[in-house]
What we know:
Elements: H1 8-34, H2 42-55, H3 57-67, H4 88-95, H5 99-112, H6 117-130, H7 134-147, H8 152-166
Helix pairs in contact: 1-2, 1-3, 4-5, 5-6, 6-7, 6-8, 7-8
Amino acid sequence: MGMRDWSRYEIYFHLALVLLAAGMAFVISVALSFLGKVEITPMRYLAILALALILMLPLLLLRRKLFNGASNFFFPDASYDRPQPVYSRPAALRAQNRLDEAIAEYEAIIAEYPDLARAYVELMDLYDLDLHDREKAAEVYRRGCAGIPDGRERRLLDEQYREITRGA
C-alpha cells in the first residue's frame, strides 16, 4: 500500500506513533542522565529512539486491525467498498419543513444506494409523521423490499415499517 492509499487517519496514527516513540526516547534519556548512569550523546539518543521504535511494533500491527479496509476495529462487521451516503442535507431540509426538497434528496440517495435501508426508513418516516400519508410510506416500503435483499438492511427496513404500521 503506497502512501497515496493511506487515509488521513492512518497518517495521523503513524505520526502519533513516531511522536510517541520520540517522547519515550526523550523520557528514557532524561531519566538515565538524571540518575547519572549514562551520559546521553546524540548517538546514544538515536539508539534509544531506535529501541523505542522497535517497542512500537505491536502498535503497528494494531494499525492493520484499525485501518484495514476489510475490517474495522470499532465496527468489525462493517466493510465499505464505496463512500457512504450523506443524510444530513435531507434531514436539515426536513427540519426546516422543506419537505419536497427533503423527499427529492432521499430519492436521490435511494437511486444511488438502493440496497441501504436508511433512506427508505427516513422517507417512510417523513411520509408517515410529516405528511400523514401511510399509503406513500407503504409504497416506499415496497420499493425498499424490492431493492434490498435479505439480511441486516432488510431486517432494519421491516422493523421500521412494523413500527409505522403498529399505530394504524
